[in-house]
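Incident log, support desk, overnight shift.

02:14 A customer reports that sequence design results differ from what the structure should imply. Their input is reproduced verbatim below. On-call engineer (initials T.W.) acknowledged and began investigating.
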């Protein structure tokens, strides 16, 4: 879909800017006018992680005049496999500050605005209002729906991307001219159904493939060139090396941009997306132990059956001593239930405590009433019991 330029051109380019952007200026479709539009543009990146890294770096290099970074997290060693805007010496620093430094190193003419805070219902509208365009690099469903709803309510376009293992997706959402995220995904997936990158992994370079699409679409929208991805979903398969474009329609029944919207203001997104399912929450109630309690049980010689419900690849990285591996899927489909012992207490754990709560619901429903799961999973075990083990 062809759209008019999103921003007006800046008054002029300096001599230094003409030199810096000369390879843009000689593209007829961009030219001086297009570069002036980029200079005048205000773009917000939600997240300075996997997608935010390449997005911020190329938006900066392209000469976007004002770049906002909203990010509350700090740089962890496990980020560096894909979050290339951060480096070894940034470990422990706020990602927003590390990203700002990299942006200014790439292009000192960019005005960087750091929002070193978590995006939430209290600040999202005020922050979004300051920008022409939003690039969504979030990795969880609650924030994705919040980004969508805030953008729809403010009438702003945004560029969405998602990554998982070898698969990526991207699109442009702008309710005034086409579909929104809710038109594509009216409901979040059931909690625990779709693993996050922290659980399932992501090929680092996939961030560049999808981030590059997002930046390309940003530049096209800002300067008004080409056909936007608005109304299309790009699906990338790195293993097959295929890009497929699927047409998207605006859903007249969409809860926020449809003909009779039921969502007219921001909602409780954690509740909407459910950190864990109601069943899992009920199962975990009164049946949750800490990693330290697990250690005490083991040391006291209490007979327990310790079951790791993660995937084999995760088991290979780190495990709690004394555990055996039974992936969650084998518990949920019932195939592993017959092998569970009746004569000892069952203790389940996963990486963070979400999947083990889901498995706990199935185990308790199968009659193992005294089964428990470990709050915070193996991550908590490493933090509180054995810091010599790796985390991932
Ligand atoms: Zn919609």
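02:41 Re-run completed on a clean worker. Output:
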């Amino acid at each position: 879909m062809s759209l008019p330029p999103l921003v007006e051109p800046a008054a002029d380019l300096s001599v230094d800017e003409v030199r810096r952007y000369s390879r843009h200026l000689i593209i007829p479709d961009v030219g001086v006018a297009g570069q002036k539009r980029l200079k005048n543009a205000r773009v917000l990146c939600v997240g300075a992680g996997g997608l935010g890294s390449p997005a911020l770096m190329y938006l900066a290099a392209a000469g976007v005049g004002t770049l906002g970074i909203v990010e509350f997290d700090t740089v962890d060693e496990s980020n560096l496999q894909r979050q290339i805007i951060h480096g070894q010496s940034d470990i422990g620093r706020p990602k927003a500050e590390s990203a700002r430094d990299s942006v200014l190193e790439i292009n000192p003419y960019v005005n960087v605005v750091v929002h070193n805070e978590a995006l939430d219902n209290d600040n999202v509208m005020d922050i979004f209002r300051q920008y022409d365009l939003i690039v969504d690099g979030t990795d969880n469903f609650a924030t994705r729906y919040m980004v969508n709803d805030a953008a729809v309510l403010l009438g702003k376009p945004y560029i969405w991307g998602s990554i998982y293992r070898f698969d990526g997706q991207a699109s442009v959402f702008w309710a005034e001219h086409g579909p929104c995220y809710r038109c594509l995904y009216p409901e979040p997936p059931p909690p625990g159904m779709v693993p996050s990158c922290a659980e399932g992994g992501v090929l680092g370079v996939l961030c560049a493939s999808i981030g590059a699409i997002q930046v390309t679409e940003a530049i096209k929208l800002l300067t008004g060139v080409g056909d936007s991805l608005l109304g299309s979903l790009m699906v990338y398969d790195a293993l097959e090396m295929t890009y497929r474009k699927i047409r998207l329609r605006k859903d007249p029944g969409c809860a926020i941009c449809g003909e009779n919207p039921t969502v007219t203001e921001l909602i409780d997104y954690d509740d909407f997306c459910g950190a864990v399912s109601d069943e899992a929450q009920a199962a975990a109630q009164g049946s949750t132990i800490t990693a330290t309690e697990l250690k005490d049980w083991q040391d006291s010689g209490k007979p327990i059956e310790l079951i790791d419900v993660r995937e084999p690849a995760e088991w290979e990285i780190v495990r709690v001593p004394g555990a055996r591996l039974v992936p969650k899927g084998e518990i949920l489909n019932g195939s592993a239930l017959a092998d569970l012992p009746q004569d000892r207490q069952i203790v389940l754990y996963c990486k963070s405590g979400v999947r083990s709560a889901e498995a706990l619901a199935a185990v308790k429903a199968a009659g193992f009433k005294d089964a428990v799961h470990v709050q915070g999973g193996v991550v908590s075990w490493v933090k509180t019991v054995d810091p010599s083990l790796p985390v991932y």
